[in-house]
Amino acid sequence: MGLFDKLFGGKAATDADRVTSYFRALTAYTPSFMSRTGGLYEMELTRSAIHAFASHVSKLKPEVSGAAKSSLAPLLQYQPNKFMDTSKFLYRLATILSVTTTAFIVPLTDATDSVITGFYPLLPGRAEIMEFAGEPWLRYTFANGQRAAIEFTRVGILTTHQYRDDFFGDGHDALSPTLDLLDVQRQAMTEAVTSSAAIRFFARLAGTLRPEDIKAERDRFTLDNLSADNKSGVMMFDAKYADVKQIDSKQFVIDADQMKLIKDNVFGYFGANDAILTNSYDENGWNAFYEGKVEPFALQLGLVMTNMVYTARERSFGNQVMFSSNRLQYASNTSKLAVTTQLMDRGLLSNYGAADIWNLPQPDGPERWVIRGEYIDISNLPGHTVDQAKAAAAAALAAATAPVPDTTIPQATP
Q1: What does the DSSP assignment read for 307-345?
Q2: Collapsing DSSP states into helix, strand and coil, what is residue 226?
Q3: Burial of 326 (0-12, 13-18, 19+ CB in 10 A)
Q4: Would you list the domain boundaries of the chain?
Q5: CA-to-CA distance for 353 and 356, rounded, in angstroms?
Q6: Could you tell me the end-to-end alpha-carbon distance of the chain, in angstroms, rounded to an integer?
Q7: pLDDT of residue 230
Q8: What's the number of CA atoms in the CB half-sphere (13 Å) around residue 185?
Q9: 41, CA 20 to 30 Å: which among 102, 169, 216, 285?
Q10: pLDDT in the model for residue 384
Q11: β pairing state of 147-151 and 156-159
Q12: How many CB atoms are closer than 10 A to CB 136?
């Protein structure tokens, strides 16, 4: 039994054959998706940008709220399926979404097909929304020709750059000119380096020789003068050569401004920069990257997973799936200390939360919230009530903002 059978079961092919007509979309586009990635993931710069994003996404923490389907919490936190831990699951999902602008998640179920036992990210060669018995189905076709179908309401779809299609992303056609420039520059640099290193000297023979004699003489000249055996550094040649000159080979260098333009195009498209790719960012740079890239992905993934797992009634009772990140792990020690101190003093942060900020193991014992001793609820003071405190505060404010009387002694008129 292969991976296909483990994911979809024996009825997958039968279901795929039952759906035969396309689901009618609002747009004029046929509701189908093709994973034509081109050379996007094969370029060093674009792959680096995608890898940086997926690496940070892989550190998101799944959190399951509510009492319904509580067994999903350890599943999502450690091993969404038998072949991936949570980090690999999130990394691959983010990579697929970045490369194809559409990512699919299918639920894995038990033998009864009613209890969710896991989740798997898919990369089909083609996906189509079909109609069967008045309901939409999602039919997948994989590179090996196998097909499977699943009810549309049971599957999760993440998209980016979604505009023309009602269900899928638009692809990366807008980035094609930049990818072409990257490929042309890489080829040009390779050709220039190769050609500049191929010929170092040229020599003109004084007489007219047959081609085979010219080749033999070139090999002899190279062996005698240009090989490692010539330790003197002196080149000698006789009257057969009218002239021998060394070629001044100049190193090919890509124009810096042009390369910067290409990098800026890629960075702007993927929301990254040099600091993110080289892990040299500060806390402000990380916060900007998190707000612009990681958090939108976490928000979309949480909504997709919540809608996959829970019914509308279950969601109304607060059951949901979220993906969070401890952003303060990337802050400076000064910022961490200030946040930890201020929030713990006011009872807004527990001892467990403080340990997480400092990337330390959680302390032994129960989770505790504390507050500084000098902070006391004023209603607990003897002889004081909330109304009295409000009246005293209002009187103090009025006295502080009252106009200062004019105490200047008027001068006598002469």
Answers
A1: HHH--HHHHHTT-EEEEE--GGGGS-HHHHHHHHHHHHH
A2: coil
A3: middle
A4: 3-172, 178-246, 328-399
A5: 5
A6: 116
A7: 63
A8: 20
A9: 285
A10: 64
A11: unpaired
A12: 18
* CA pair distance 315, 311, nearest whole angstrom: 6
Within 10 A of 162 (CB to CB), how many other CB atoms are there?
Answer: 15
Beta strands in 57-146 (DSSP E): 61-65, 102-109, 116-122, 126-132, 135-141
Asked if residue 172 lies in contact with residue 101, where contact means CB atoms within 8 angstroms, the answer is: yes
Token code pair at residue 200: 């170092």
Instruction: Please compute the mean of the pLDDT values over residues 224-229 and round it to a whole number.
Output: 68
Query: For residue 389, what are its two tokens?
Result: 């405190």
CA pair distance 185, 177, nearest whole angstrom: 12
Q: How large is the average pLDDT for residues 10-34? A: 58
Instruction: Tell the residue number behind the tokens 């959190």, with chain if given.
Output: 63
User: Given a cut of 60, is residue 22 above it in pLDDT?
Assistant: no
Which amino acid would we find at residue 257?
D
Q: Tell me the pLDDT band of 382, cut-offs 50, 70 and 90.
A: low
| CB distance 65 to 320 below 8 Å | yes
H-only helix segments in 58-175: 72-78, 86-100
Which pair of structure tokens corresponds to residue 65?
Answer: 């709220």
